[in-house]
């Protein structure tokens, strides 16, 4: 995903986005793949005056979506994309994770239709990452799992 490639997020936005991702990961218990994704995002966006990645990953303070209220649409959509990616990082977006991201999305002014488009984009990226596998049957099974429950 290239959600942040064309954006210059402030240190505050990076910190809040990281907290949003952590809030989604904590719903079902932070899995190693989720921690790795969050850590990679934070470390790639971190400046020298920001807390270490380890400190951020161990921070248990709650995410307050109001801290991102009024964000420009590209930032709001990046938050939604990154939260969806976090939910899927362990291989499955649970109903509780989807509900949490839907709530964040709404609070940031992302329409339900745009949320569905972003969800589709994340799924397409995940499927694209698997498309090189030689076992088409396994890929088809994963695609069914990604879309189950929708």
As a percent range, the share of helical residues equals 55-70%
Q: How large is the share of residues in beta strands? A: under 5%
Count of distinct structural domains: 1
Query: What is the multimeric organization of the chains shown?
Result: single chain
The low-confidence parts are 1-6
User: What's the CATH topology label?
Assistant: TerB-like
Largest sheet: none
Mean pLDDT: 85
Characterise this structure.
The protein is mostly helical and 150 residues long. It has a single domain, classed as TerB-like, CATH 1.10.3680. It is 65% helix and 0% strand. The chain has seven helices and no strands. Helix 1 packs antiparallel against helix 2, helix 1 runs antiparallel to helix 5 and helix 4 crosses helix 6.
Topology diagram in text:
Layout: H1 11-27, H2 32-45, H3 53-58, H4 73-88, H5 95-107, H6 112-130, H7 136-147
Keywords:
mainly alpha, disordered N terminus, 7 helices, TerB-like, globular, 150 residues
Summarize the structure.
The chain has 150 residues and is mainly alpha-helical. Helices cover 65% and strands 0% of the residues.
